[in-house]
Write a structure and sequence with these properties.
By secondary structure, this protein is an alpha+beta fold. It is built from five helices and 13 strands. Helix 1 packs antiparallel against helix 2 and helix 4 packs antiparallel against helix 5. This is DUF58 domain-containing protein.
């Protein structure tokens, strides 16, 4: 519990009136001191109730990078059946979120900008909830248990030679499964209403009573495997950061990427789930 400036002033005034009442024996002063102390006691009870009966849940995003501030979701739950909670501040890992009102048996969501230092698994086991309620005389705080576990990826770091993909694989293009707009003509189908006008095959459409649309095969870059030992970087942490940068950049370009970690080989793919798996492997590498 922390005494605020207004609270300190209130306490000083109460003490002065109390000393005056004792020295003079004036009943009116005793009555005023009793009222001030009673008001302080009531505010203390309300403040204590305000920060109790609360639970906090922090949800991490899919991607958290070392040293990079990332937006986490904070959910505050009020388990009290009768009383709402007011003017709450949640402190977690150096970040603060504010809630003006959490209704009784209610849930309110906010965001926290937090950063973790160092790759690998991280955990947070507690948050602190504080409130100046009801009259900002005291700021009362208590600790809430938390079960936050997340994997922090290495910080992306471009390294010399990383921009040249030929040092890590071969260039080229392959025909991928699925519909695209830049490959070869795969088939001719009827116009469905959602296709771009440039895809309409006007010559065939003129021979039929309906519009015909060209469906092109999607193109994909040739798969590439990133070998950690061959990356142009210094120590292991720099190699892992360089590999993180390459995985994100190449897969944004639509290139299937794999990963070679000494004796382990992860085959190339281009899905988002595969990218997160590669980043997780880089984050946990050598942490066993």
């Amino acid at each position: 519990m922390t005494l605020t400036r207004s609270g300190a002033f209130y306490v000083v005034i109460t003490l002065l009136i109390g000393f005056a009442a004792v020295n003079t024996g004036n009943n009116l002063l005793f009555f005023i001191v009793s009222a001030l102390l009673g008001f302080m006691a009531v505010s203390g009870v309300l403040g204590w109730l305000n920060i109790h009966g609360l639970d906090a849940v922090v949800t991490p995003p899919d991607e958290v990078y070392s040293g990079v501030s990332t937006l986490f979701t904070l959910c505050l739950i009020n388990r009290k059946r009768l009383l709402p909670s007011f003017l709450l501040q949640i402190h977690c890992n150096g970040a603060t979120a504010e809630f003006k009102l959490v209704d009784r048996r209610g849930t309110t969501t906010s965001s926290l900008m937090m950063a973790f230092t160092g790759r690998g698994p991280h955990a947070l086991e507690k948050v602190t909830v504080c409130s100046p309620f009801p009259i900002n005389f005291f700021v009362r705080c208590r600790t809430l248990s938390l079960d936050l576990r997340t994997v922090v990826f290495p910080a992306p770091l471009g390294c010399p030679g990383a921009a040249d993909s030929r040092s890590h694989g071969r260039n080229g293009s392959l025909t991928a499964r699925g519909k695209g707009y830049e490959g070869d003509i795969d088939r001719i189908v009827a116009y469905s209403g959602g296709d771009p006008l440039k895809m309409i095959h006007w010559r065939l459409s003129a021979r039929h009573d309906e519009l015909k649309v060209k469906e092109l095969s999607a193109t994909a870059r040739e798969p590439l495997v990133i070998d950690i030992d061959r990356l142009p970087a210094g120590n292991l942490e720099e190699k892992l950061s360089c590999a993180t940068y390459l995985v994100n950049r190449l897969m944004r370009e639509g290139r299937p990427v794999g990963l070679k970690l000494r004796k382990r080989l992860l085959k190339p793919a281009d899905s988002r789930g595969h990218r997160l798996r590669l980043l997780t492997e880089l984050a946990l590498y050598g942490k066993d």
